[in-house]
Amino acid sequence: MSQKRGNQDYAISSKDELGKIKDQRLVRLDAYVNGKWVGATSDRRFEVTDPGTLQTIGHVADMNAHDVSKAVDAASDAFGKWSKTTAKERASLLRKWYDQVMANKDDLARLMTLECGKPLAEAAGEIGYGASFIEWFSEEAKRAYGDVVPSPMSSTRMVVLKQPVGVAGIITPYNFPTAMITRKVAAALAAGCTVVVRPAHETPFSALALCELAERAGIPPGVFNVVPSSGENTPEVGKELTTNPKIRKVSFTGSTNVGKLLMSQASSTMKKISMELGGNAPFIVFEDASIRDAAEQLILCKFRNSGQTCVCANRIYVHDKVYDEFVSVFTSLVKEKLRIGHGLAPGVNFGPMITERGLAKTEEQLQRAVKAGAKVIVGGNRANVKSGGNFFEPTVLVNVSDDVPMTCEETFGPLCPIYRFTTEEEVMCRANNVPVGLAGYFFSRDIGRIFRVAEALEVGMVGVNIGSISTEVAPFGGVKESGVGREGSRYGIDEYLNIKYLNIAL
């Protein structure tokens, strides 16, 4: 079936679009270490391309383990002074950083679209979302309370303090190049930690622009360091961040397999860790649900960022009584609402996939599902967009087997398989029959079922009658093999604090 293409013939020159960024000081090609812009000691650089055109937009400093070690030294030296600043001082600087981000949101959104492909309006939404974490943790810095514990003896007093962990090594993915950094870094800085960040090699520009704005806000040298590296150097950089004894905390967002490797490496020095790993979110539509509402929420939940989100719906289970109606409404909405094209083209709300390997994985999962009997009813092909790039049509399938990779593994692409179910017990068994548990969604108007299903889903986050759950005020994280720890909310700052108990004899 046909797909709307938006402005598929819109001519794009990635370098020309980069030149349209008003403040060119936000376009940085070097690493940011100890308050200075520095190249790699090897003088090597790696190429960054626009996934919507496959054109080169710049060559960024390719830092290796030795370079990262120097950044860790700088962060360690800065920690002594930064950890002793008052919570109010840190809060003030974070608020200034937030103001800088919001004042430059248009440039930051354009830069993000060029390096990761998401439509400009969606990129602007991420800038606001990312900035919200800076604002939130600027406030939480002043609320990292300890406790006075009632002593069992009249001759002693017991106090619990919270103190910053130390230097934090932070590794972030390509799909949210601003928000994944601010969600971690703002919490760390609010707690009194210093950080060394390794952004995804596909999307380093957003991270480096944040450094420029942090410097303008007055965040001191050595507190916030960013060390981009190529895919080739990634293993040694990751190992340095997880084994360097000066780093006391590691935070990672990415695949479960890589998370397990980093956890293993970090165990050598017993670092504190938080891991936000892969998901395989069920999206369940019960027979009493509002079909139109569920279909509209699925559009948002499944196809935002072209399906490249860890919390997007991966398996859609629809009750047999409303299956045909739901499929009809949903497919009509897909064809009506989604417009494919380069993220800077007017009217586009569905951009390219960020990497060729992600596109290839999407194609492979689709082919294996079709071979096992699935039927494609919308999409199913690479999209022919004049700008070139990694475009794949939003795709809807029915008659999908429970045994194919599309069902058993995270897709991270715009494939939407719709399955039938008949009973609540059956669908809960199928929904929980995966090793991961990040997010889950379901639609029902039965209040008893709402509590039963929400409590039974083996996930860290549940959306009930809604397909969007991410916010700075709520804890983000999963269970099972989806990770350890929580980000955002009042719980997020605790990931960067140690608890110290004092027993004081009178």
Automatic annotation (TrEMBL):
<dbReference type="InterPro" id="IPR029510">
    <property type="entry name" value="Ald_DH_CS_GLU"/>
</dbReference>
<feature type="domain" description="Aldehyde dehydrogenase">
    <location>
        <begin position="37"/>
        <end position="501"/>
    </location>
</feature>
<keyword id="KW-0560">Oxidoreductase</keyword>
<comment type="pathway">
    <text>Amino-acid degradation; 4-aminobutanoate degradation.</text>
</comment>
<dbReference type="InterPro" id="IPR050740">
    <property type="entry name" value="Aldehyde_DH_Superfamily"/>
</dbReference>
<dbReference type="InterPro" id="IPR016162">
    <property type="entry name" value="Ald_DH_N"/>
</dbReference>
<dbReference type="GO" id="GO:0004777">
    <property type="term" value="F:succinate-semialdehyde dehydrogenase (NAD+) activity"/>
</dbReference>
<dbReference type="InterPro" id="IPR010102">
    <property type="entry name" value="Succ_semiAld_DH"/>
</dbReference>
<dbReference type="InterPro" id="IPR015590">
    <property type="entry name" value="Aldehyde_DH_dom"/>
</dbReference>
<dbReference type="GO" id="GO:0009450">
    <property type="term" value="P:gamma-aminobutyric acid catabolic process"/>
</dbReference>
<comment type="similarity">
    <text>Belongs to the aldehyde dehydrogenase family.</text>
</comment>
<dbReference type="InterPro" id="IPR016163">
    <property type="entry name" value="Ald_DH_C"/>
</dbReference>
<dbReference type="Pfam" id="PF00171">
    <property type="entry name" value="Aldedh"/>
</dbReference>
<dbReference type="InterPro" id="IPR016160">
    <property type="entry name" value="Ald_DH_CS_CYS"/>
</dbReference>
<protein>
    <recommendedName>
        <fullName>Succinate-semialdehyde dehydrogenase</fullName>
        <ecNumber>1.2.1.16</ecNumber>
    </recommendedName>
</protein>
<dbReference type="InterPro" id="IPR016161">
    <property type="entry name" value="Ald_DH/histidinol_DH"/>
</dbReference>
<feature type="active site">
    <location>
        <position position="276"/>
    </location>
</feature>
